[in-house]
DNA sequence: CGGATGCTTGATGTATCTCAAGACGTGTGG
DNA sequence: CCACACGTCTTGAGATACATCAAGCATCCG
């Protein structure tokens, strides 16, 4: 069985446990998925490419990844981040063609699992089933919140909002215990996720540091004033649907 | 049984039929949903508000609606449009709290259906089941494409892309037979969906008219040059997953 | 040592916002 | 039936937030 810290299916268990109260039997049921094939992938390489025919479900175990879309002329938009414990699209294997790509932002490790295996594990247990449905719905809700951010929030607000969101999600899977935590995104990633140029991200970050909101260096983020960060970004946690944070 | 034009469950049938080949028996199965309660709602009023506890699934029958999110200070972002035949969130009734609102853009008519009724109709028929899963996945894919649009495309490109998307979707449900069709969105709606000010939308539209791309007046959109519109916006229809357009 | 990768800064241009006003059509109540 | 409010589209003027281009520096690594 996996150790309790950031290995195997433990992050997934912790995440699902935020949606529905799970018990030890649920936890053990999930470990069955650890029989699947564990793969790994280097930073800056793709886990899946647009146009492929997906046939497996991927469960991120360690490292950060992202979903992105690109245009023929090279512009690229990150449309979501994957953290340990996240399924990369539980149901997309149904589609015949992937409409986006998945890229590794750091070195990542993940399971590739056959769809029926997931069903075998999850479907018989009502709470797991419900929690995994939540997971799916929340992924979609996060996309909507990003649309609100990119469409309406200013760059400072956008970054503040993103930092708080990632803080909540990392905490859920046990990767942020305090207000300082590993944060491997480069300014380039932040730019691609927020629809702003790198130069502007750089200046926006400086402003936020000057304001005493955050510190960010050496791949570590320190949230100095969480409440102000939430106020600035008008953060409303309801979209994450963590009933039991 | 409903007439074939834009009434009852016919738009839904047509939409699902774009994902999987359906037969007459599937069509008739869907009409069972017409036993549900038909409601209507005036333009500019809300069908559902953020914070509510959703317990029904809504199927849009006629008119246009949108999903939107707003910030405490009044800013608002439209994150999706609903056309006849669309389910407003097949699965959200699972969540205890709605994280967004649904607003009517025109006078709309819709069914309110109990979740179990939908399951009763859809689950026993494999093609219906698969098609409705597609519907869900495509809604999510559209959100991703919008993120790409708002984050990376210029206002002209964004509008062009939106016009093509809506043309495809309207055609799928039989509401656009030629390149001229009813288009009830105001410039304000376009602004709120694209994260641009109304003034700028106005000027962007003028530019597009000048360029001979479209005509738009009196709630009618005329696509003058579809191919150029697609080229300008770098439109790739793969995200709609209309296998059988 | 040379080449990636990432962060930072300055200078310049422009796309887009904001504010403000007017015109038009439509429905409504006095 | 008129007066008025309201929603929508349009235009102008001015301010500014942001992109772009370009360069320099640090770190890491083969």
Word description of this protein:
2 copies of one chain form a homodimer. Chain A is an alpha+beta fold and 245 residues long. Chain A folds into 2 domains: 10-140, Jelly Rolls (Sandwich), CATH 2.60.120.10; 154-240, Arc Repressor Mutant, subunit A (Orthogonal Bundle). Chain A contains 8 helices and 11 strands. The first copy, chain A, has helices at residues 10-19, 24-31, 115-122, 126-152, 155-172, 187-194, 198-210, 226-233; strands spanning 37-41, 46-48, 57-62, 65-70, 76-82, 87-88, 101-104, 108-113, 180-182, 214-217, 220-223. In chain A, the strands form 3 sheets. In chain A, strands 1-8-3-6 form a 4-stranded antiparallel β-sheet. A 4-stranded antiparallel β-sheet of chain A has the order 2-7-4-5. In chain A, strands 9-11-10 form a 3-stranded antiparallel β-sheet. In chain A, α1 (10-19) packs across α4 and α5 packs across α8 (226-233). At the A-B interface, β5 and α4 of A face β5 and α4 of B. Chain A binds a DNA duplex (30 and 30 nucleotides) through residues 44, 154-155, 186-188, 196-200, 202-203, 206.
């Amino acid at each position: 069985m996996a150790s309790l810290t950031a290995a195997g299916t433990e992050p997934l268990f912790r995440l699902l446990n935020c949606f529905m109260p799970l018990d030890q039997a649920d936890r053990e049921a999930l470990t069955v998925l650890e029989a699947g094939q564990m793969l790994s992938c280097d930073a800056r390489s793709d886990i899946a490419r647009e146009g492929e025919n997906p046939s497996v479900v991927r469960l991120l175990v360690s490292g950060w990844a992202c979903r992105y879309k690109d245009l023929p002329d090279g512009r690229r938009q990150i449309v979501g981040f994957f953290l340990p414990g996240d399924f990369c699209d539980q149901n997309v294997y149904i589609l015949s063609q992937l409409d986006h790509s998945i890229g590794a932002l750091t070195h990542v490790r993940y399971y590739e699992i056959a769809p029926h295996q997931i069903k075998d594990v999850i479907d018989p247990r009502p709470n797991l089933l419900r929690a995994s449905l939540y997971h799916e719905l929340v992924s979609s809700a996060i996309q909507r919140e990003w649309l609100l951010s990119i469409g309406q929030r200013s760059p400072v607000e956008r970054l503040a909002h993103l930092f708080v969101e990632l803080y909540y999600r990392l905490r859920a899977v046990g990767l942020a215990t305090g207000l300082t935590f590993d944060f491997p995104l480069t300014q380039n990633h932040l730019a691609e996720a927020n629809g702003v140029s790198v130069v502007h991200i750089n200046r926006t970050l400086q402003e936020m540091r000057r304001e005493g909101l955050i510190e960010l260096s050496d791949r570590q983020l320190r949230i100095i004033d969480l409440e102000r960060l939430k106020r600035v970004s008008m953060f409303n946690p309801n979209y994450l649907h963590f009933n039991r944070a």
